[in-house]
Amino acid sequence: MIRLLAPDPTRFDAFADCLAEYGGTGLDGSSVRPEDTLSLDRPYFDGYLRARAAEEDGTDVLPGRVPCTSRWIVEDDWEDGGPLLGFIALRHALNPFLFDQGGHIGYSVRPSARRRGAATAALALTLAAAQRRGLDPVLVTCLEGNEASRRIIEAAGGQYEDSREGHRRYWIGRGPVPTAPDVP
């Protein structure tokens, strides 16, 4: 069974193993920005943990970012040393970039864990968390060529609106679709 957990400071090895498997490719939903220099060392991990905690409670959000809840995607064997399967992020608001490309929710599952339902389950759990936060509808995006993610979003009820800058934009929920970002 898939679960979402806050980043775990005791599981540096699982984090490093997961990052290494990506091989330097995109980490959507990890809250690691493309311009960040990834490192598999403990000081980087400690900084990652501090930044995610600050983003979640809104105390120290970097310019151009919004408060965000970052979670790790894990299975029931996590407490027994199971692997970190991936990342998912719930952004609490939409700035102009997120409104056009990033969405409220971003996620990524490590290559060895794909096609096993982890992203589908994690998205469902995060949509429920978004609803508890009062976010309705929720914007979820994927790259134009990412057919697997497109299918996951559509299966979760995503209604395609348009594509911008190579990103397909889907709204999930019953509320009125916004026409502009929440924050400047």
Automatic annotation (TrEMBL):
What highest taxon heads this organism's lineage?
A: Bacteria
Give the SUPFAM superfamilies listed for this entry: Acyl-CoA N-acyltransferases (Nat) (SSF55729)
Q: Which residues form the N-acetyltransferase domain?
A: 1-184
Q: Which InterPro entries match?
A: Acyl_CoA_acyltransferase, GNAT_dom
PROSITE patterns, A to Z: GNAT
**Swiss-Prot/TrEMBL keywords:** Transferase
Q: Does the keyword Transferase apply?
A: yes
- Mention one GO molecular function: acyltransferase activity, transferring groups other than amino-acyl groups
Q: Which Pfam families match?
A: Acetyltransf_3
Return the PANTHER family for the record.
Answer: ACETYLTRANSFERASE
Q: Indicate what this protein is called per its UniProt record.
A: Acetyltransferase
Organism field: Brachybacterium phenoliresistens
